[in-house]
TrEMBL record, chains A, B:
Its EC number is 5.99.1.4. It comes from Solimonas marina. The active site is at S22. It catalyses: 2-hydroxychromene-2-carboxylate = (3E)-4-(2-hydroxyphenyl)-2-oxobut-3-enoate. InterPro entries: DSBA-like_thioredoxin_dom (IPR001853), GST_Kappa/NadH (IPR051924), HCCAis_GSTk (IPR014440), NahD-like (IPR044087), Thioredoxin-like_sf (IPR036249). This is 2-hydroxychromene-2-carboxylate isomerase.
Amino acid sequence: MERRTNAGGFVSTLDFWFEFGSTYSYPAAMRIGDAARAAGVTVRWQPFLLGPVFQSQGYAQSPILEVPAKAAYMWRDLARLCGKYGLGWQQPSHFPRTSVLGARIACSYADAPWLENFVHAVYRANFAEDRDVGDEAVIAACLRTAGQQAAAVIAHATSEAERPRLRAQGVRAAELGLFGAPSFVVNGELFWGQDRLEDALAWARR
Amino acid sequence: MERRTNAGGFVSTLDFWFEFGSTYSYPAAMRIGDAARAAGVTVRWQPFLLGPVFQSQGYAQSPILEVPAKAAYMWRDLARLCGKYGLGWQQPSHFPRTSVLGARIACSYADAPWLENFVHAVYRANFAEDRDVGDEAVIAACLRTAGQQAAAVIAHATSEAERPRLRAQGVRAAELGLFGAPSFVVNGELFWGQDRLEDALAWARR
């Protein structure tokens, strides 16, 4: 990712906390790269798992699924948002899907120049193509889309040496008080929800 | 409120469902009048009470208060949003406050030209001045701010003939499947949350 300086001459960074199974993380993940580059803000990709977060809150699943009318609204809202942002959309036949493998890869290769393309491919698979991103074959296809040798990347990301990274992300998320995704953290300031992306970028440029 | 026609030549209307105790209804209520007039959309003010909605979902209070980290975020988010929109902000010393009296007045005078000013005054009292909008004296002051004879308005809005209006709003909200506030309904399309105001107005102009 190209590094630019903002009007003040210093490099601003934004931590983007995302989960591959999270609906609203999808438009955020697709939009953040271009929006941040236009704003001169550097994105740090911070994959994490929401399951432990919800469990720590006493929920067995995403709180939005606890209220049927709210869950139904979420699907309609997602379809409209994807239309607004020009993103493909197909309501997943299974929800939530998680991708621990995808998250491990994103942890191990957070700074790789191809990571953004991989993230896009995984979200498209889940929310535009209704494919099971928990399936290693689907993740391998996403890696190839990002120009990578799937087998080598997967072997590295799932190695004993690399596996603690995802657990450490969970510890860090808890320390930050994250309660959902997507979340943006800028200089200690938390923004929650894909509709706060622009506010978070504006904060990074203050 | 002045009626205008949009590009298609017909008058678009937007139902604005709000609750005086709702934090995120505050910026929505303050912004919607000007935004709708600029868009050529007519607002129908739809006051309702959230308490029965949350109870029907199995919650004793707003779901956002069930997770302490999320409640803390809400206050910070509100302070930032009010800064962004140029609105006064003071975190209420008591939350949630409800104003059944304010809601009854808004029901009885939904079409009055002064209603918007009254609504603004009540929200300012609650969220910018930390005053108890459940107190009749505070509501009376809000009516005077809107240029009204407080005693006469209160006597009418709380009369036996008028009291069924607020209950009917609750029935209608349930029929519409509303699960929170603010909510915008445009031609049967539901938008939830103050950050969807612009999307709802755009939908009304389609």
